[in-house]
Model the fold of this input.
Amino acid sequence: MTPAPAPSRAHSFNAAAARYAAYRPSYPPALFDAVERLAGRSLTGARVADVGAGTGIATALLVDRGADVVAVEPGQGMAEQFRRTLPHTPLVRGDGNALPLADACADFLTYAQAWHWTDQERSVPEALRVLRPGGALALWWNIPDPDTSWFDAQTARVARFLGMDDDTRRAADRTSELTTALDFRRDRVHWSRSVPLDTHLANLGTHSAFLVLGEERSAAFLAEERAELLKVFPDAVVEERYFVDLLVAIRPA
Done:
């Protein structure tokens, strides 16, 4: 079982919470249709715990879907940004390894871009404890479409800059080594967004591998990357193509 990533990377988002909220991509409505289909139940009126909620990108969409949501977030900076964005949504401090929630209290437990930060030897039993019988654990990640040629070239440049060989890069790109203790159903939801080039670069800069490098080194790479992308997008508008990798497991009754 793969251990959770280093704490320094996990906590690096706190100092960049405002940028994270401004530049990270959201999720398409079709994702939540897929969550409901795989879970076999509606989000509307459901009690949802959104774990690793960050600045509230997924939380806000769950609230809009009609769910009764409580957010769980360990980071001080991310929690402060969350409260500015969603002041009326309950937020408790904690993480998936030791959820500050009662037994059998949730119809859904959701992790948007967050499950890979947990220790599954602890987070799986915690998920089963907090979910009601028949409740659903839903995990998802926005993954840039690997069939996009310019993104493949960018990934190679990032790997060279960070000193990762191909094997290391492939390992870093894995969303998670999922435990066999749960039976996951899987779907992929494709979507895209067009954003200014500077927004694309700012989003890239909010990833933990860059945040731990420091601003000077990251800024130098992003300036070079801007020049490379202008060759592909001379109008300085980038089409980012994604698929959301979705996994849903049902707690046994």
